[in-house]
Amino acid sequence: MLRKRSVSLSGHATSVALEPEFWAVLDEIGAHVGLGHAGLMKRIDERRGRVPLASSCRLLALAWAGGDRSFAEQDSSD
Description:
- This is Ribbon-helix-helix domain-containing protein.
- The chain is of the alpha+beta class.
- The chain has 4 helices and 2 strands; from the N terminus they run E-E-H-H-H-H.
- The protein has one domain (3-67).
- Helix 1 (20-33) crosses helix 3.
């Protein structure tokens, strides 16, 4: 079952549907880097290139779960 969250990115309303397990990891990442839901989605969106947003979220969550903390180390102007 997918859980949908809505956010405004670059002035456009969008929503991302992910499995709850992915949202749990993304919430952990947001807490670690000091970003709320919207800030985290904005940072992911800025770094995803041409990869779909939901895919970028899943890939980040998998990398984080595997021990890759480079996302937290990247400089951001959030």
